[in-house]
């Protein structure tokens, strides 16, 4: 997965969307307008699920996809959270080496701590179980992990 995320296609798309979102926000446009204007239905593989996680999520697919729509939302709403182009390779690490897995609604959150910092990857499965989508990816704090833990169902803990 790291190869597809560190390659030129993803880098070009990320940079183009990052610049367009930044300019559009400066122009006062909201994220729903941005998503309609900038989204093209493009997607990138960002992770592969372990068979045990496939069973937990009731999915038939190992691949976790990132859509351009989600990337636009992330760029618009997660400004200042320091999720850069080169951070997206961490998604696979979070999926492979979680310290904590929580279920919040139908979404599953996985957390991994690296170098004293928590990273969260939220994966959602389509109703038919044929596709998995990264809904959100972000660094977070001990305090936020504790808050989410209180409102979620524990699935697994290291």
Give an account of the 3D structure:
With 158 residues, the chain is of the alpha+beta class. It is 42% helix and 30% strand. It is built from seven helices and seven strands. The protein has a seven-stranded mixed beta sheet with strand order 1-2-6-5-4-3-7. A hairpin with a 6-residue loop joins strand 5 and strand 6. Helix 2 packs across helix 5 and helix 3 packs antiparallel against helix 5. The longest helix has 19 residues. The protein is globular, with a radius of gyration of 15 Å.
Helicity level: 40-55%
Low-confidence stretches: none
Strand and helix order? HHHEHEHHEEEEHE
Number of helices: 7
Coarse morphology: globular
Q: Tell me the fraction of residues in β-strands, as a range.
A: 25-35%
Radius of gyration: 15 Å
Strand order of the largest sheet: 1-2-6-5-4-3-7
Structural class: alpha+beta
Q: Sheet bearing the most strands, described?
A: 7 strands, mixed
Average pLDDT reading: 88
Number of distinct beta strands: 7
What topology does this entry show?
Layout: H1 2-6, H2 8-26, H3 31-38, E1 43-48, H4 51-57, E2 63-67, H5 68-77, H6 90-96, E3 100-104, E4 107-114, E5 117-125, E6 132-140, H7 142-151, E7 153-157
Parallel strand pairs: 2-6
Antiparallel strand pairs: 1-2, 3-4, 3-7, 4-5, 5-6
Helix pairs in contact: 2-5, 3-5
Task: List the keywords.
alpha+beta
Short description:
This protein has 158 residues and is of the alpha+beta class. Helix content is 42%, strand content 30%.
């Amino acid at each position: 997965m790291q190869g597809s995320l560190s390659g030129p296609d993803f880098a070009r798309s990320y940079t183009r969307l990052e610049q367009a979102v930044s300019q559009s926000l400066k122009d006062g446009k909201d994220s729903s307008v941005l998503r309609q204007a900038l989204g093209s239905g493009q997607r990138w593989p960002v992770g592969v699920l372990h068979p045990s996680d496939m069973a937990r999520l009731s999915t038939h697919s190992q691949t976790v996809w990132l859509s351009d729509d989600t990337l636009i939302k992330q760029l618009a709403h997660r400004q200042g959270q320091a999720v850069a182009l080169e951070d997206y390779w961490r998604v696979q690490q979070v999926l492979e080496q979680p310290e904590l897995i929580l279920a919040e609604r139908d979404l599953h959150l996985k957390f991994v701590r690296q170098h004293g910092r928590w990273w969260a990857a939220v994966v959602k499965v389509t109703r038919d179980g044929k596709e998995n989508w990264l809904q959100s990816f972000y660094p977070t704090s001990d305090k936020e992990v504790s808050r989410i833990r209180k409102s979620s169902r524990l699935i697994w803990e290291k």
